[in-house]
């Protein structure tokens, strides 16, 4: 049992490292839109191990980003709203790990892709809701002239969230179709 726990811990640490490496790839357009491809390994981990381990690893990733200074920190509250809570929320993709395992057992590619899509959209809605809140409270002053902070935050965070979700679905869906072994936590 301890061996499995150690493997899971190491896998989580590796996924955090891969996520951070992916975060260095420029995917932003301007200062308000980006596709966060670092979400891919975090959501993959959650789908492999479930939501409990998923939220631990996703929260650890958010804290890691804070620790290395890879954040735009204005106040303590803003930092929590934008870097701990949203990353924590990504781990909730793991709520769908059970249904995904069932789709794997039934050898249903179509159902597996549907579950990956729903899990990713669920996690991204949770995550980007908090980015939206921070956008209204902290970044609204940067809204283009004539836009209020709610519309500004909804449009830009919504676009980033949707683009991120699509990127995650495409990559994880491709991985699922290519090697379903990746979605079995104890593959050999």
From TrEMBL:
UniProt keyword annotations, A-Z: Membrane, Transmembrane, Transmembrane helix
Pfam families according to UniProt: Thia_YuaJ (PF09515)
GO molecular function list: thiamine transmembrane transporter activity
Any single GO CC term annotated in Swiss-Prot or TrEMBL for this entry: plasma membrane
Membrane spanning residue stretches: 54-74, 80-100, 112-130, 150-176
InterPro entries in UniProt: Thia_Transptr_ThiT (IPR012651)
Name of protein: Proton-coupled thiamine transporter YuaJ
